[in-house]
Amino acid sequence: MADPSLKAALDAGRFVVAPGIFDMISARVADGLGFTALYATGYGTVASHLGIADAGVATYSDMVSRMGRFAQGCRTPVIADADTGYGGLLNVRHTVMGYEGAGVTAIQIEDQEVPKKCGHTPGRRVIAARDMALKIEVAAEARRDPNFLIIARTDARTGLGLDEAIERGKLYRRAGADIVFIESPESEDEMKRIGQEIDAPLLANNVEGGRTPILPAERLKAIGYDIAIFPAIGFLAAAAAFERVYTHLRDHGDSNDRPAGDDYGFGRMNELMQFPEVWEFERRWAREEG
Hints:
The protein is of the alpha/beta class. The chain folds into 2 domains: 4-232, Phosphoenolpyruvate-binding domains (TIM Barrel); 239-289, no CATH class. It has 13 helices and 8 strands. It has helices at 4-11, 24-31, 42-50, 60-73, 89-101, 129-142, 156-160, 162-175, 188-197, 217-222, 233-252, 266-272, 275-289; strands spanning 16-21, 38-40, 78-81, 106-110, 149-154, 179-182, 202-205, 227-230. It has an 8-stranded parallel β-barrel with strand order 1-2-3-4-5-6-7-8, surrounded by 8 helices. Strand 1, helix 2 (24-31) and strand 2 form a beta-alpha-beta unit. The longest helix is centred in the C-terminal third of the chain and has 20 residues, at 233-252. The protein is globular. The N and C termini lie far apart (41 Å). The relative contact order is 0.12. InterPro entries: ICL/PEPM, Pyrv/PenolPyrv_kinase-like_dom, Pyrv_kinase-like_dom_sf.
């Protein structure tokens, strides 16, 4: 079931900052920090699971199990990337039912052609606006729980301009989207226009090194946004940490003499992975095995 707390937060006017999660270590760390929601990034999930570009190669089957594991392993509501819905209208229906059944709280569907591409990379093309609106109508009809939220994303800004992107956002809202996501606006002024012209909860995508300026949460709220996702912040930091410690190991032949605080700590990781619960279970039941 969807977690009602995300919808309640939006209804109450609380601004939501959602960090990107991409595997269960990142999910467990973020889950313990008190965020209102977590964002299960398609880019990061595909990269960590398959080690390839987020370019439409991953399938529904690849993704629903991963997204479900995030949702089931976290107490915090999970917003999940579902690309284009993995096909036509019947695929969208199946995707919504599958993600909802897996425990996800919000699903993001975009209007790119298949195969899709990452929203901050070049060469994206979109389907007809009416075809996407039908996908949103199908998605809204397919959900069983009103707390399960539908996010409609348009990638029209880069190829067709801001006016077209805004008109699509309005259309997708009328079609039944709970949240509108205009991908890749290229300035704060563009973001202000989106906030002024679209009467719907709005999502801002903050990608370090991407096409859109990263604004503070207070500023985003002031110009009309309701959610800020940071899909890349976790895996970019993780990749840098991997490179640093692996380079040290290559150059020194051991893991000694690294800077203090350079790792998470084996004890903390044991706690994060819930080893104390395993040890307590073993203590309780050891007498039966002896």
